[in-house]
Amino acid sequence: MADWDELSDALEEYTSTCNANERLRKMQRDWTRRLHFACSDSTDTFTMVVERGEITSTQRGHDGLPDIIVTTTSETFCDMFWGDLNPVQKYLRGEITVKGSQEDVMRLDAISYVIWPEF
Amino acid sequence: MSASDRGAVAHLRRTVGTATATATSAGLAFAAIDYLGVVSILAYAPGATASFAIFVGGLLVLLVSGVFSELNGLYPSAAGIRLYLGRAVGHRTAMSVTFTYMTTVVLVIAADAFLIGAAVRYVLHEPAALAYVWIAVLLGIALAANLLGVRLAGWVQTSVTYTVLLGTSVLSIIAIFHVGGAFSHPFDLFGKGSFSGIQAVAFALFLFAAFEWVTTTAEEARQPRVITRALFIAPFLIWIVATLFVLGLSHLVAFPHLHGSAYPQLLLGHAALGTVGEMWMLALTVLTALNTFNGGFLVASRFIYAAARENTLPRAFAKLNLRAVPWVAVTSLAVVSAIVAAVVFATGQWLLLVAVGATIEAGIYAIGSLCLLILRRRETRERPFRLVAGRPLAVVGVVVFTILFLATGFADPKNSKHFSIAPFTVIIILATISVLYVRLGVPRIQAAAAARAAAAGPKRRPARPARSETLIAESSSDIDVVPLSSHEAGPSVSDGDR
Questions:
Q1: Cα–Cα distance between B413 and B197 in angstroms, integer?
Q2: What is the pTM of this model?
Q3: What does the pLDDT look like over B186-218, one tens digit per residue?
Q4: Which residue of B has its CA nearest to A72?
């Protein structure tokens, strides 16, 4: 099980990688969403705000009304934010659960696909 | 995740309620091809008896609603079908079935493109060959809209669905009360041969086909019961509309006129209200395309994208354009649909398309019932909906839908007194391609993906620093310090990860 420090490092890395990717920001320019994440194996939760394709904040705890809720283990979150796994494979096995529109689920995966195309 | 978490109410900014979910379900099911489906029922159940076949089909669909409600409650996800099939019959079989199932989406898109093209050409009194142009124009518009990321707003989709259902019902009622018609054969289910009643019911199931795809919106439902409600209300609405339509049709239009026609709804419109009725039904037919091209393209292209990302379809299908649309998947769908539509038009085999769709749907319902039967044993956790007498009803579902699968699979769409292997042959070909692809093609794609991931280098995530945690074994006087084994300290690596 990953602790909050590890999750925080992973989120920081993910945020800087996403925001540095020009193509991704152009692709997601019409995408403004509030995402809630919940660890299924601990009490850790966090909120990410995306504004016009740019991740503008990540904070511990749930804040505001979300557009998407993602739930999985803390280890999976860490691996996902470091780009060490393919989120779709986990999702199709039921290891990642998502609440939100199908379009938003795809957009969320598109982020991983664009920044880590080797998967 | 616990069952209670899975069944929890989603506090989302935007959620789907019962009215929208019901409209989605009914909209996915009620396509232009349903008008032809009604004619297929009339081929096996004469006159007003067809409404009785639709009633029996509707009762069976209630069982399907119960089965899919429980399965959806267990796996409330857009990937639900893969999950419950995978848990019940294994992942390879799940993949093969899902690929075959998804071909019905292509068939419906192609059928609608053809039917609407044929209907527009008929009303405008254009030469037959111009139907090809209309097919190309319709699919071209759908392709462009999808590539540009244009989506129908939820309320537009809901309005379109209820307009089509209401418009068809009103015209059908006018036709039923039109002077000069006559009802015949009200209860003559086996009036066209020993098996005709079974085949009529099997084709009646086709009218409801795809209503269960609403389960792919489970992740945006306000509450789990929203999908359950939609699964029961939508078939009821379709049953009412289809019954009125078949009664109107059998009341006013002679069957020989209907059987060779690709636009029975226009014939009914004309018989009931002349040119106004014809234009009325043409407008409704075009409206059905909005749902088919919006919903069908969306469901199928996102499925293809996910399969490519999962490394079960070639990577090219996951390519995204700058509007985050999987453009290769969308374009391929449009091209394949155009080819199928053109072939259908050239060969005049539109009723074969109905028979193939009806057969696949009956097969899916049998497999769904089988999944419920198996998962009742394997998945003991709570579900938000539990089908009463689930096990015996699932057994009934397996038996009945298998019979209906065979009944439509060997139906001759052009002559109800004959049997034909054509529908079954098409399905065997589709299923064989799917199985061979899963057995031979998928392992290669997955091997290439694994090689790509290996070439990308080691994991990016920093190794977790060796923890100072120790197991302290205490003896009577000494303290032994035993370090944890190294694998317990590192992050887990699962199949598919690096």
A1: 14
A2: 0.85
A3: 566 666 666 678 889 999 999 999 899 899 888
A4: B1
Q: Which of B1, B456, B462 sits opposite A40 (nearest CB)?
A: B1
B467 in any annotated domain: no
Within an 8 Å CB–CB cutoff, is residue B223 touching chain A?
no
In chain B, residues with a C-beta closer than 8 Å to the C-beta of A40 are: 1, 5
Percentage of residues in chain B with pLDDT exceeding 90?
A: 44
A78: chain B residues, CB-CB within 8 Å: 461, 491
Smallest CA–CA distance, residue A58 to chain B, in Å, is 18
Bridge partners of A57, per DSSP, are A49
Q: Which domain holds residue A10?
A: 4-115
Q: Which are the contacts of A71, defined by CB distance < 8 A and separation ≥ 6?
A: A37, A38, A39, A40, A96, A97, A98, B1, B5
DSSP state, residue B262: S
Give the number of other CB atoms < 10 A from CB of residue B352.
19
CA distance B129 to B345: 9
* Helix segments in B379-485, DSSP class H: 390-409, 422-436, 442-455
Q: Touching check for A105 and chain B: CB below 8 Å?
A: yes
Domain count, chain B: 1
Residue B399: CATH number of its domain: 1.20.1740.10
